[in-house]
Amino acid sequence: MNLEQTESILEDLANEFDLFGERVNEDELKKMLELSLSYHIDANCIVNNWMAFSSSRKMELTLENLQLFDREWLPKKVSTPKTPKQKLMSRIAVDSTNCMNEEQLDMIGSYATPEEKKQIAQMKRHLTPEDQSAGRKKFVAGNRDAILSTSGSSPSTRSTTPSTRSTTPSAKFSSRSNAGDVVLTFGDSQNVTWPGQGLGVPVKQLSSHTLQATQKYMFQKLSQKAFVLNDQIEEMASIFKNLHGVQEFSHLAQPTQDPVYVAGRVCCDSVGKLNCQSVLLEGSRESSAGKSISLDLSELKQYSLFPGQVIGLQGVNSTGKKFVATQILPSAALPFSQELPDEMAAETLRLIIAVGPYSPSDALDFSPLHDLIKYIQRDRPDVCILMGPFIDSKNLIVNGGDLHESYEEMFLKQVEQIGQATQNLGCQVVIVSSYRDVHHYRCVYPQPPYNMPDSTQQKCSLASHVSFASDPVTLSISGVVIGVTSTDILLHLSKSEISLGSQGKLDRLGRLVQHVLHQQSYYPLYPPVEEVNLDHHLWELYAKFKVTPHVIILPSDLKSFIKDIDGCCCVNPGRLTTGTVGGTFAQLVINTHHIRGSPASACVGRIVKV
Fold it and tell me: Which of 33, 98, 278, 605 stands 20 to 30 A from 46 (CA)?
């Protein structure tokens, strides 16, 4: 390793310590450099490990403590510890051995085992005088490319130069050959004209009480959360009574020899995935004093259950310890909205629906979003619904932190392009937030709309045709009620659901959508998956249906579809990118004058490759 590379790493180490306000002398920096090279980790990782170690042990930064850090902490915490079993030469890029001089090989040999030193000696014997004199050549270890640069640039230059990996388009996306292909169609599309005139229809939220960006989160008390969960059981129990003429639901744990009706929430008796042997039924405070009881499903020929689902059952509890279910009471969705469209409203409403990420997973190149904008400019829809994430937390570049501008700056740049490209199209753009967006600091559900600076809105004239909505949100457009959530509830349900037998004519995807409609909530799963931070108080206010939407948009990593579920037009447009390849978006044409009869029959749609 030459002097320039050593000084570069030492400077990186000093900068990392400065972030923590830690004073470090030259000897301590050299020891940290030695550890960094030994364990093949960069300055950020080695300093973060030291801060964790010193905080837990309440130690100061000294050479003696660094030796203890080397013996007791790093071998356990670092994935590539210093061990004789590892072959040093296998960790070095093959191409780099051709540009090493004798001095650099000696540097590597100081960390090598006896067997590896023999390999290094053989390499030194094969060096020509020209090779030995090439003192300025650089080399890069296989897992050291983030630290030892082959460009020869100074540390200050490297920190401000954009990563070529983050700005280079993904090869797989740019080489795709199926752009514009129609994946599937829904309804009678023979006489449908997909391009529109951009009528600029007004978009409003169904409820005047909407989630705001200033809302405080996660201040709920346990008692408040318990009331919300209990009220949900009571509300659904009331619906079951009206549907099936049940006079009263019995206590779950009360022994009885006669068949009775009970209602409650499906739970799991342990931490883990629900199965047919681990199902519990939790009753409400009013009917069952909040007690839970084991549920026997052996008498049922078909069922479909998931944690958090509120169900009604008929069965027998002869011992008071287990309820043997003989029938699950069918559930139903809320009625559709009866709101009449405006007299001046157009007969046909055209929508384009797309879901992030808007860049491939291996780059922050927004070519997929730019291609989508071209489709919007070509087809001039009345409304375009764009759902996050825009700056995806699962993007490899974002995870690596190899960025040359802030998350907020990247997001604002994309919104500016959307606003300017759609400004004169007569198209209303609705941008729905996502908890996966790293630029949005509220990683919660329900999630408030993105908060845009006033200067940006004025600059792009966004206020006139671009609006921001929360996740979830229920929109009303020319009398058509459209429910939207960017959270992948279908995938979360599919991982939690257990089922037996066929549920009528529905396939698995249709069954998952029906769960959402019949539970009357955009996120009926409880407890939620680990990545969803659910605020139950706000969930009760903003994530429950007031009416069943005419069209519900449930984006998912599962297969894209457009389905008629109980008269509701249910759409999974897919994601605009899936990994490093192009994904899909959806187009809908809705006859607003026929939406009150059967909403799904008034819709024609298709899924298109971007």
Answer: 98
Show the CA angle centred on residue 56, arms to residues 50 and 57, nearest 5°: 90
Secondary structure (3-state) at 550: coil
Three-state DSSP state, 565: strand
Residue 463, both tokens: 């206020």
By C-alpha distance, which of 61, 82, 58 is closest to 71? 82
Hunting for tokens 């559709």 — which residue is that?
336
**Cβ atoms of residues 152 and 138 within 8 Å:** yes
Q: What is the DSSP string of 4-23?
A: HHHHHHHHHHHHHHHHTT--
- What 3-state DSSP class applies to 432? strand
Q: What is the CA angle 449-455-459, rounded to 5?
A: 100
With contact defined as beta carbons under 8 Å apart, do 29 and 10 qualify?
yes
Cβ neighbours around 183 below 10 Å, total? 16
pLDDT digits (tens, 9 = 90+) for 62-82: 888 888 888 888 887 776 544
Of 154-168, 189-203, 430-444, minimum mean pLDDT range = 154-168
Judge whether 455 and 464 are in contact, CB under 8 Å: no
Which residues is 473 bridged to in the sheet? 484
3-state secondary structure of 497: coil
pLDDT of residue 120 exceeding 50? yes
Query: Exposed, middle or buried by CB within 10 Å (0-12, 13-18, 19+), for 65?
Result: middle
Question: pTM of the prediction?
Answer: 0.72
Task: Report the phi/psi class of residue 372: left, alpha or beta, with left for phi > 0 and alpha for psi in -120 to 50.
Answer: alpha
Q: Order across the sheet with 603-609: list the strands.
A: 182-186, 603-609, 584-591, 348-355, 383-387, 428-432, 466-469
